[in-house]
């Protein structure tokens, strides 16, 4: 909205422009509950009348609103492209794909740089992808241009809040807290004026929390008391409280914490938890906000776990059913019922919200079936494609219908992650990699939900040190203080059951320990790909400056960092680096990104927005000597996967694959924060991959 010379009146708007304004007013009001296309002509006419009344009211106040470009004036194609981009971005955001949404709006903004909804969606996509500072700048620019709608201001306030909580300096924290408070308080006062109760208690409690965290206890408690009254009135008007009343009840609890009434808060949080049921995402969000207020007041938080309990996440491992002919029985088929009863009893006690593990015959499939029966989520990790996995790890015994059970579980699982596209060589690294990823994914989920991680192992107690085996996983869990529920296997008698009567060939449930395949080692390594944003647009006389200053910055950083790569390849602006462990790769990537981002490139004769995209991945690779060059070689399908992450990473950011984030979590790497940004299509039609934004805490 602006105040142009001449104050354009509603009469200067064409019917199509007025229709577009009506559609936008409708969508802002209904927030996508029903599409515009589903309205009757009478309903559309009503909204057009409202749009015209809005324009008349603004005109009477001396304001004019410039109509958007008229499709009749030859901009049909551009307008439709913009609308299509908006639809695509909104859809992708609903599906949790902020990077795809960002790409859609960024391309459309080249044709329509001032289009409000595209700019707003760009800010939202940036915020959800973890680029908080850029999102904050984009949304602040919208506000400065006169766009002060509730959605824009709410998003802007949220970015200020998140930036405040992640700030590493007192000045930055206070500045963002003040900005967030100002926006939330303004929204609260406006919502109260309009009588919009739901908006009022949402913006009000956020304003009170921001005031409390910045030390303005008096104002915080004044607003919190008003919000408490609002929420009590909302709940009193209901004949019976339902799940829909969760947020006003949780807001009452938060208000009590701000008002210095922790005992009252405890009761209210417990009541809210009953209303929430299995809405564990909402519960974890509420618990996170409560912890901020509890820590600010230096109170103990042990009671919060009891008041708002979230079930644990379970990661499981165990032995396969013995294949026919196993010389020394370990888990013969006749033990299945007894083991299943123990697994079921343990899981009934834990009642996990989700379980992570593989799906081999025996312990894995038994655990998955029991979790499904109890209503938990199933997250299956396969080391290679399902058909090959079934052949090697499922169809080992003719009885038990393991193959059918395997296929049924794949169909009903919440997700199935295949961590290598092609079957890798039979090697301990393959299974060690799968164990790290399933443990890390479970730990990440537990962190997001703010709950405990438990291990469950069907294990005979042998083979503790063998990489990739059940014992090695249990050792890792115990080393990291993960509570382990062990289901012991009774010592099997080799003379019992049909196994003893068959041919006596040894059977193993994972490949041999050898790390060699041909003349190449096959081992887990962390990989980094990076390129310079804008390199392809440099003029010829800027290329030497790029080599001197940009690559010189990388070289200078290499000299001073303690995080060293073991292998590097460069080509133009591109870099491929290999590290022995993910900790070194992640810390190197963040340090390099910071070194590049803080440079004044314009003063060095290069584009001001020069930056780097950095992608990280971790997986088994072949390590050897290149026959042509005689130099070290690190390559394989996981190298290609790393290369596909970098092109879709936002400029100036570091992104990592879900596998990298999982291994970082499994190995408890300190000093890093991984924020999930969604499953995103990789470059060059390489499929979809879960991505995480890598930042410092």
Concise account of the structure shown:
It is built from 24 helices and 15 strands. It is α/β, with parallel strands linked by helices and 697 residues long.
Number of domains: 4
The CATH topology of the largest domain turns out to be Serine Threonine Protein Phosphatase 5, Tetratricopeptide repeat
Give Rg in angstroms. 29 Å
Helix content: 40-55%
Overall form? globular
Q: Mean pLDDT, rounded to whole units?
A: 85
Given as residue ranges, the uncertain stretches (5+ residues, pLDDT < 50) are 1-12, 69-74, 494-517
CATH architecture of the largest domain: Alpha Horseshoe
**Major β-sheet, in short?**
9 strands, mixed
Going by helix content, strand content and strand pairing, the class is: alpha/beta
Number of strands: 15
N-to-C terminal Cα separation, in Å? 39 Å
Name of the CATH superfamily of the largest domain: Tetratricopeptide repeat domain
CATH class membership of the largest domain: Mainly Alpha
Instruction: Report the portion of residues in β strands.
Output: 5-15%
Q: Figure out the total of helices.
A: 24
Description:
This protein folds into four domains: 10-65, no CATH class; 80-307, Serine Threonine Protein Phosphatase 5, Tetratricopeptide repeat (Alpha Horseshoe), CATH 1.25.40; 313-513, Rossmann fold (3-Layer(aba) Sandwich); 517-695, Nucleotide cyclase, GGDEF domain (Alpha-Beta Plaits, 2-Layer Sandwich). By secondary structure, it is of the alpha/beta class. The chain is built from 24 helices and 15 strands. Helix 9 packs parallel to helix 11 (246-258).
């Amino acid at each position: 909205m602006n105040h142009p010379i001449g104050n354009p009146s509603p009469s200067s708007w064409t019917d199509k422009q007025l229709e577009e304004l009506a559609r936008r007013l409708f969508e802002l009001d209904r927030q996508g509950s029903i599409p515009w296309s589903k309205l009757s002509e009478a309903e559309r006419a009503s909204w057009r009348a409202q749009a015209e009344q809005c324009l008349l009211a603004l005109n009477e106040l001396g304001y004019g609103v410039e109509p958007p470009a008229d499709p009749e004036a030859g901009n049909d194609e551009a307008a439709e492209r913009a609308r299509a981009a908006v639809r695509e971005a909104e859809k992708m955001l609903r599906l949790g794909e902020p990077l795809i949404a960002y790409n859609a709006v960024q391309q459309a903004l080249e044709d329509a740089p001032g289009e409000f909804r595209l700019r707003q969606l760009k800010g939202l996509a940036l915020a959800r992808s973890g680029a908080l500072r850029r999102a904050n700048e984009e949304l602040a620019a919208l506000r400065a241009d006169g766009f002060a709608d509730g959605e824009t201001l709410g998003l802007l306030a949220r970015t200020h809040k998140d930036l405040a909580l992640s700030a590493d300096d007192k000045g930055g924290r206070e500045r963002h807290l003040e900005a967030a408070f100002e926006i939330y308080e303004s929204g609260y006062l406006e919502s109260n004026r309009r009588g919009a109760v739901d908006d009022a208690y949402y913006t009000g409690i956020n304003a009170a929390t921001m005031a409390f965290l910045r030390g303005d206890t008096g104002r915080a408690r004044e607003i919190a008391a008003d919000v408490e009254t609002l929420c009590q009135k909302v709940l009193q008007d209901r004949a019976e409280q339902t799940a829909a009343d969760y947020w006003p009840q949780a807001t009452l609890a938060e208000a009590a914490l701000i008002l210095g009434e922790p005992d009252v808060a405890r009761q209210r949080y417990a009541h809210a938890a009953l209303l929430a049921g299995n809405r564990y995402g909402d519960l974890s969000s509420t618990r996170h906000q409560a912890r901020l207020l509890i820590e600010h007041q230096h109170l103990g938080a042990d009671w919060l776990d009891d008041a708002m309990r979230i079930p644990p996440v379970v990661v499981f491992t165990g032995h396969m059913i013995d294949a026919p002919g196993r010389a020394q029985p370990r888990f013969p088929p006749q033990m299945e019922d007894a083991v299943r009863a123990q697994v079921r009893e343990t899981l009934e006690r834990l009642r996990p919200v989700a379980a992570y593990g593989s799906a081999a015959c025996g312990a894995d499939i038994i655990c998955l079936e029991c979790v499904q029966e109890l209503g938990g989520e199933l997250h299956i990790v396969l080391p290679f494609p399902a058909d090959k996995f079934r052949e090697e790890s499922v169809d080992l015994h003719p009885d038990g219908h393991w193959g059918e059970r395997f296929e049924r579980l794949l169909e009903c699982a919440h997700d199935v992650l295949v961590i290598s596209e092609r079957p890798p060589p039979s090697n301990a690294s393959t299974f060690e990699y799968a164990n790290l990823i399933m443990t890390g994914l479970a730990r990440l989920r537990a962190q997001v939900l703010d709950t405990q991680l438990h291990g469950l192992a069907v294990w005979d107690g042998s083979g503790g040190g063998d990489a990739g085996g059940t014992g090695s996983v249990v050792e890792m869990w115990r080393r990291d203080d993960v509570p382990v529920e062990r289901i012991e296997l009774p010592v099997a008698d080799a003379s019992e059951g049909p196994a003893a009567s068959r041919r006596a060939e040894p059977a193993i449930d994972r490949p041999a320990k050898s790390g060699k395949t041909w003349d190449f080692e096959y081992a887990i390594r962390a990989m980094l790909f990076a390129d310079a944003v804008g390199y392809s647009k440099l003029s010829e006389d800027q290329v030497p400056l790029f080599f001197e200053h940009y690559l010189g910055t990388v070289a200078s950083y290499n000299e001073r960092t303690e995080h060293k790569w073991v292998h590097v390849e460069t080509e133009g602006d591109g870099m491929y680096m290999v590290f022995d462990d993910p900790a070194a790769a992640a810390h190197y990537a963040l340090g390099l990104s910071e070194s590049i981002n803080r440079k004044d490139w314009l003063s060095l004769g290069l584009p001001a927005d020069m930056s780097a995209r950095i992608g990280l991945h971790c997986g088994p690779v072949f390590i050897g000597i290149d026959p042509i060059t005689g130099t070290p070689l690190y390559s394989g399908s996981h190298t290609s996967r790393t290369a596909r992450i970098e092109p879709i990473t936002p400029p100036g950011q570091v992104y990592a694959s879900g596998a990298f984030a999982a291994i970082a979590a499994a190995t408890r790497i300190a000093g890093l924060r991984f924020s999930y940004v969604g499953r995103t299509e990789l470059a060059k039609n390489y499929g979809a991959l879960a991505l995480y934004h890598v930042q410092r805490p």
